[in-house]
Write a structure and sequence with these properties.
The complex is a heterodimer of chains A (about 450) and B (about 300). Chain A contains 17 helices and ten strands. With about 450 residues, chain A is an alpha/beta fold. The two termini of chain A are about 45 Å apart. In chain A, about 40% of the residues are buried. By secondary structure, chain B is an alpha/beta fold. In chain B, about 30% of the residues lie in helices and about 25% in strands. The longest helix of chain B is centred in the middle third of the chain and has 15 residues. Classes of the chains: A alpha/beta (about 450), B alpha/beta (about 300). Chains A and B meet through helix 7 and helix 9 of A and helix 4 and strand 5 of B.
């Protein structure tokens, strides 16, 4: 999976990318093309780079990186033996000069030596990143230009044509001499983009309050996990995001809890953190150790797909099939399922959830499943959102979030959380309906097995 | 040469043609030819897609500008490649600004011709002017501008303007004078005095905002709107080019006591006239200048006399 795909698949990643202060537009393309890292060493190396970029004053480097343009087109043309025009030669020169400066300024990233390119494009050793076909490339050109400058206006057409012919010759020769440097220019461009991305990540770490995760092998553990975009939205309304602590073992973890208990937000935060981690970003938490996964696969509600014409249940089945197929192929992604089968009837829904949990436990797939169903497989980790507290009288639709404790606790009981009626009342549901529902609920819970 | 001195005192000057082929290019070429030893501190570019759009219809080539050695020019990649002069590339834009490619900033190392195609919108032009004056020590940026309702770019980000009118606008002197006066009158609309409100409205993205006794229209103000506005409400517009109404509607609004304020105003340094129409029809230059001067009370120059340097 490339970063550009992850942006469309992982909620909240776009928020992070839009706030990433890259110095050069060229680096954005490199970031978008970067691959999801699947080894602990690669992630560790990337995080160490971000840490170093954050510890050093990179102001001068940032100025040089700001001058870097996207060289891919020009370098490909050089590699193919084509002749570059003045604008392209200018870009190559400005790039090579910036790369040479950065090389002397920092060793955080190894920038290859491109001084030979600078020498070719700066024959007069001006040290200025401007370019034209300099007189010193050709004596003949020098003569024609002298004549051109002395000639009367309106008498220059022939001279200009000659000048143009000689310039073309020089450009062809220059391009041929630059062609062997195409690979090293590519490497240098990649190195500068890598440095730019690391610097931007480091700066963002400070502005968003992210932490450096460590690579774990047994358990994934988050302290104070949060969702940066939701936190900002809440702050804009004078409220605070309540961070969550959670530990995920090798198999599935079930999360139950009241409506509005932040279960979907939890899954989104987990997906975002794992994705950021494996693209070498710091993550939105106070502290974290994370086990490498073969990707992040989510089935989170609100992912609308009305075009395909599938019902929400059918859509879910399709997505879950993809996940089980991947697991059977031997992949071990982080799987996040938001109330699977919640649109079907409760008895069958609970059966489906049970079967999914069996499958995920059997294949030891690190996963989180939120559900309202009780009585599902007992062999898995179970967590419950602590949920709603306070007296109903004080609570309104507007402040209900203030009476919700989003933290997770171990859940031993078999009963599903019974807060729906209370919350429905606060939300202003019809009083008559609530009364009747309360009566029905008493009848249900008095029956054996809760059936 | 008072005219040139006046121009070089300003940070940016737009040469604005009232009609296609009014003679804008001749005036710009005249100014460039006479910058003399101050060439290194002069830059030139253009604004608006107006030129290209018309060219595609009439298939007439876009006129080339003669750039003297030393002058900085900003044009698109495509037109830069088609240049007929020796030029040093100083910078290239990060993104493709228009269909003609990225924006190239270059300095002429020999005198020669190039087609100008600068930024297409007002905000980009304002940024470019800042960039040229801050980054390359440019004292004066000349802008080849056009007035067109088709254009997103308004030249009214420059400090001053030179209006170019002529037989291309109308073959009748009274009508030509009337139309030129109408443009000139609008350029004289007073700037909004409340600086805080001016800054707030400049950043406004809404098309319409109103306050106590005023209404701000971000886009074009047409005849219907002008006819329907109550004269006791002060009308605030971006700049004079946003009014698209026949002269009688405009003047009757003012006669009813209507007040119009602009967010941006640029001083008119001079009006240049071209008595020859593109079809070859010629007006009496002396009479035309006399009548324009009477109507506008600003210096009036003949474009062709610009050419022969008899100014």
């Amino acid at each position: 999976m490339q970063f550009r795909d992850a942006i469309t698949q992982v909620d909240g990643l776009r928020y992070i990318v839009e706030r990433l202060g890259l110095c050069s537009a060229a680096s954005r393309n490199v970031l978008y093309d970067s691959e999801f890292l699947r080894s602990g060493e690669a992630v560790e190396a990337e995080l160490a780079l971000v840490a170093r970029a954050g510890e050093t004053d990179m102001t001068d480097v940032a100025i040089e990186l700001g001058r870097v343009k996207d060289l891919r087109g020009s370098v490909s043309r050089l590699a193919n033996g084509e002749t570059l025009d003045d604008v392209e030669l200018f870009e190559v020169k400005a790039f090579a000069m910036a790369a040479s400066s950065v090389r002397t300024m920092t060793d955080i990233v190894a920038v290859p030596d491109v001084s030979a390119v600078v020498a070719l494009l700066d024959p007069d050793r001006t040290g200025v990143a401007h370019f034209y076909v300099y007189d010193s490339y050709s004596q003949e050109l020098q003569k024609v230009r002298r004549k051109l400058r002395d000639a009367d206006e309106g008498n220059t057409a022939a001279l200009y044509t000659e000048n143009e012919r000689l310039e073309c010759e020089v450009r062809a020769q220059l391009s041929a001499r630059l062609s062997p440097y195409a690979p090293v220019l590519r490497e240098a461009a990649a190195a500068l983009a890598h440095l730019d991305i690391a610097m931007a990540k480091a700066a963002q770490t400070r502005s968003l309050g992210l932490c450096r995760p460590t690579v774990a092998t047994a358990e994934t553990r988050y302290e104070g996990l949060f969702d940066p975009s939701l936190r900002e939205a809440l702050r804009a309304r004078g409220r605070e995001f309540q961070p969550v602590d959670i530990t995920l073992g090798a198999g599935p973890t079930v999360v139950t809890g009241a409506n509005m208990g932040g279960k979907t937000v939890l899954l989104r935060s987990l997906a975002l953190a794992q994705t950021l981690f494996q693209f070498g970003f710091y993550i939105p938490a106070r502290a974290a150790e994370i086990v490498i996964a073969d990707g992040v696969r989510t089935v989170i509600n609100e992912q609308r797909d009305e075009v395909s014409g599938l019902s929400s249940f059918a859509r879910e089945v399709v997505r879950i099939n993809e996940i089980t197929a991947a697991v059977r192929r031997g992949e071990r992604p982080l799987v996040l399922l938001d109330e699977p089968a919640h649109t079907t009837n409760p008895a069958e829904g609970a059966a489906i959830v049970g079967a999914l949990l069996d499958f995920l436990a059997e294949h030891r797939v690190r996963s989180v499943i939120t559900t309202h169903y009780s009585g599902v497989a007992t062999a898995v980790e179970r967590l419950r959102v602590r949920g709603f507290y306070g007296d109903t009288e004080d609570v309104t639709v507007d402040n209900i979030g203030d009476y919700m404790d989003y933290s997770l606790v171990a859940d031993e009981g078999d009963d599903p959380p019974r807060e729906a009626l209370r919350i429905a009342r606060i939300l202003g549901a019809d009083e008559k309906i609530i009364e009747r529902a309360t009566k029905h609920a008493r009848v249900f819970s008095s029956l054996p097995d809760g059936k | 040469m008072l005219f040139i001195d006046d121009i070089l005192k300003r940070r940016s000057v737009a040469i604005v043609g009232l009609a296609k082929n009014a003679g804008k290019t001749e005036v710009l070429n005249y100014v460039l030819r006479n910058v003399g030893d101050r060439a290194r501190w002069v830059a030139v570019t253009s604004i608006g897609v107006d030129g290209e759009a018309t060219d595609r219809v009439t298939r007439t080539p876009k006129p080339e500008i003669t750039i003297p050695q030393g002058v900085i020019f900003v044009t698109s990649e495509v037109h830069f490649r088609a240049r007929r002069l020796v030029a040093e590339v100083l910078d290239v834009g990060q993104t493709r600004a228009t269909a003609l490619g990225r924006q190239v900033t270059a300095r002429a190392l020999s005198t020669g011709q190039v087609m100008l195609s600068g930024p297409s919108d007002t905000a980009s032009l304002a940024r470019l002017i800042d960039c040229l004056t801050d980054g390359y020590d440019v004292g004066t940026v000349l802008v080849d501008g056009a007035l067109s309702r088709l254009s997103h770019g308004s030249p009214v980000v420059t400090e001053a303007m030179i209006l170019v009118t002529g037989a291309a606008v109308s073959a009748s002197i009274p009508k030509l004078v009337r139309e030129t006066k109408y443009v000139y009158d609008r350029t004289q609309l007073p700037e909004l005095e409340d600086v805080a409100l001016r800054e707030r409205l400049s950043a406004e993205t809404e098309r319409e905002v109103s306050g106590d006794g005023w209404i701000y229209i971000g886009g074009a103000v047409g005849e219907q709107m002008l006819g329907a506005l109550k004269p006791d409400t002060e009308l605030i517009i971006r700049d004079f080019t946003r009014i698209f109404a026949a002269p009688d509607v405009y003047y009757s609004y003012l006669a009813r006591g209507g007040q119009i304020r602009v967010l941006r105003r640029s001083e008119v340094l001079a009006v240049c006239v071209n008595p020859t129409s593109p079809e070859g029809y010629r007006l009496d230059s002396a009479l035309l200048r006399e009548q324009l001067h009477e109507a506008l009370l600003v210096p009036i120059y003949d474009v062709r006399e610009c050419n022969s340097e008899m100014l």
